[in-house]
Amino acid sequence: MEKFIDDKVYYKIFDRSFKQSSHIYNKKSKFNQLVPAEEVKANKQSVINYFAATNVLILQQVHGNKIIDTDLGVDFNLEADGAVTTQEGLVLAIQTADCVPILLSSDNGKVIGAAHCGWRGAKANIVHNLVNLMKQKWASNIKALIGPAIQQSSYEVDQEYFIGFIKENPENAVFFIDSPRPHHYMFDLPSYVELKLKQAGVENIVRMTDDTYSMPERYPSYRRSCHSTEEYRQNILSTIVIARNDASPPLSINKNS
Q1: CATH number of 2-149+205-242
Q2: Using CB atoms within 10 A of its CB, is residue 163 exposed (0-12), middle (13-18) or buried (19+)?
């Protein structure tokens, strides 16, 4: 695990290098494949054990812009794409397989947030909604991590997609370059999400540049599975947690975990 805020907030990206999980966190995966409940439960428990946490919140993500406030109660079956908490020991987890995961914390480590930013959610201002809810809980000097996602060199889109972003704001053209194919473009989704963070007032941003599409040994990728015979069942799980003061043994940093 890695420190996010010294001795207060920790995070980890659970990718294929984490061998204690099969990286399936829902009973029904893509393409309506049923996954044994025991396997899903064990995968979730591996995350809880890793952090010496009390529980992990894995949302039913729908590519929207809804953020839930876990301080009002935790509904583990709720459809949403982000969450905020002030609770110690509750791991916020975001599933991705090309989309952009973001993890956030206030500088005092008392408020954390996480969101799944696909292009639809990012365009629908999920970042603003997440940061705004954190600020309502008096979060200040927010730090953000942009996790592994599909990078521009692997993300080809068509002209209709391009026009939709230009209609939102002509300045969005900066996130596109021409594709070798006519009437197609290469889109920089992580940079678009980074701009949304800055527009929401977040300046302390750390960005991972791993390309999920081109690193099959480490990351699942939905787009890569569509272009190959690879089966899409797994997800990357990006997680963040406020450390428990009563954790036993106490949380510790292990760079090799």
Answers
A1: 3.60.140.10
A2: exposed
206 burial class (0-12, 13-18, 19+ CB within 10 angstroms)? exposed
Note down pLDDT in tens along the chain; length 257 residues: 899 999 999 999 999 999 999 999 987 655 546 778 899 999 999 999 999 999 999 999 999 999 999 999 888 778 999 999 999 999 999 999 999 999 999 999 999 999 999 999 999 999 999 999 999 999 999 999 999 999 999 999 999 999 999 999 999 999 999 999 999 999 999 999 999 999 999 999 999 999 999 999 999 999 999 999 888 889 999 999 999 987 654 443 333 33
Q: Could you tell me which of 234, 247, 228, 212 has the C-alpha nearest to residue 31?
A: 234
- Rounded to the nearest 10°, the torsion over CA 183, 184, 188, 189 is 100
Domain ranges of the chain: 2-149+205-242
Q: Which residues does residue 83 pair with via DSSP β-bridges, in sequence order? A: 68, 114
Q: Which amino acid is residue 243, in one-letter code?
A: A
Cis peptide before 101 (omega within 30 of 0): no
Burial class (CB in 10 A: 0-12, 13-18, 19+), 227: exposed
Prediction pTM value: 0.94
Question: What residues contact 246, with CB distance under 8 A and at least 6 apart?
Answer: none
Whole-angstrom Cα distance, residue 201 to residue 213?
30
